[in-house]
Amino acid sequence: MISDLLLVLVPTAAQLPSDAPPLAERAQPRMNLGRYVRGGDYPPGALRRHQQGIVGFDLDVSAEGRVTDCHVTVSSGSEDLDSATCRIMRRRARFDPARDAQGNRVPDRHSSRLEWRLSG
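Given the sequence above, the corresponding structure tokens read:
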């Protein structure tokens, strides 16, 4: 049985490319990213193998607030959990886009960690 899925946000400022203009507002998730993950999302293979772990990931967010790519930055040790995290975030996560100093919507990068945990 699945107990919970916990999301912990980590700082993102260091993730911007060095040549990127400064942002007036960073991209912000429309809701806690952990809420995009549902109990039935636990990968069956990871469930059978009782795999748990924390996945660190970066999301590339478009100027429209859609996730355009996901990169695992810290593996949970389970390929199933790592790939499920990115698959879910690419499909479901939505953001209020970043804005530059002139108020224009611009792409951004958002970093987070997701803990996959089974109940005992």
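Strands lie at 2-9, 23-25, 28-29, 53-61, 67-74, 95-96, 98-100, 105-106, 108-118. Try to locate this feature in the token string yourself.
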